[in-house]
Amino acid sequence: MASVLVVHSQSLQRLGLRMLLAAEPDLTVVGEATTGVEAVRMSAALGPDVVLMDSQVVDLDGVDHIRRITRPPTLLPVAGPARSGGHAPRVLVLTPTSHEVYAYAALRAGAGGFLPQDATPAELAAAVRIVAAGDAVTTPSLTRALIDTVRHQRTAGSLERETGLDTLTRRERDVLTGVAAGWSNTEIATRLSIAPTTVKSHVSHILAKIGARARVQAVVFAYESGLVRPAAA
């Protein structure tokens, strides 16, 4: 059972999201918030697996709310439903497809996925499950836009990424290349002739080494570090 905190500034939308998620037998809504500040407070108090947040709640000046949710100072016991594995809440953002710059900033802050605001109920439920499991959710168009953003924003800060790349083994680099290509664990395992469980273990080690919380952030790292280079536009 995955628990969800719904964050939206409009009451009708919050109600709609709650009803859609509550209709799923393996999902439960533990609370609602209307602002980023309230989302941070309620996330710490309730300990949801996923914080479903509308992009209008936090803009480029408020991405810190995502960072505070996904990277709390300590993981203290909470009074609400327990999170499996004791991990910090993961953030799934509902966003217009035109918010690529915001999406990039949110990714750097720790967001675990993005879903178009016109997604279907089935797509919403599936996305919540995927993010709750620690995987990433994004769209092909948004992924392309994020890659383009990385291409144009490589600065001196990329040197730090290249140093981080040095901590990965050759096999971990191979796996990260597959992740950046959008391959699933099964596809990576087939291409590298290793077991899917081994791929999963490598992905966990990669995320820990580069300080990422989800695969989608590992993709950003792969491009920022120069391990994978975007095709020419």
Short structural description:
The chain has 233 residues and is α/β, with parallel strands linked by helices.
Q: What gap, in angstroms, lies between the N and C termini?
A: 43 Å
Average pLDDT works out at: 81
Tell me the strand order in the biggest sheet. 2-1-3-4-5
Q: What CATH architecture of the largest domain do you see?
A: 3-Layer(aba) Sandwich
CATH superfamily of the largest domain: Response regulator
Quickly give the structural class: alpha/beta
Quaternary class: single chain
DSSP strand (E) fraction?
A: 5-15%
Count of alpha and pi helical runs: 11
Query: Strand tally, please?
Result: 5
Number of domains: 2
Query: What composes the largest sheet?
Result: 5 strands, parallel
Question: What CATH first level of the largest domain would be assigned?
Answer: Alpha Beta
Classify the helix fraction into a percent range.
40-55%
Return Rg in Å. Answer: 17 Å
List the secondary-structure elements in sequence, H or E: EHEHEHEHEHHHHHHH
Low-confidence segments? 75-82, 155-161
Q: Predict the CATH topology of the largest domain.
A: Rossmann fold
General description of the model:
This protein has 233 residues and is α/β, with parallel strands linked by helices. The protein has two domains: 2-146, Response regulator (Rossmann fold, 3-Layer(aba) Sandwich), CATH 3.40.50.2300; 156-224, Arc Repressor Mutant, subunit A (Orthogonal Bundle), CATH 1.10.10.10. It contains eleven helices and five strands; from the N terminus they run βαβαβαβαβααααααα. It has helices at residues 11-22, 36-46, 64-70, 100-109, 121-132, 140-153, 158-165, 170-180, 185-192, 196-210, 215-224; strands at residues 2-7, 27-33, 50-54, 90-95, 113-116. Helix 1 links the parallel strand 1 (2-7) and strand 2 (27-33). Helix 4 packs across helix 6 (140-153), helix 8 packs across helix 9 (185-192) and helix 9 packs across helix 10 (196-210). It is globular and about 50 Å long. Mean pLDDT is 81; it is low at 75-82 and 155-161.
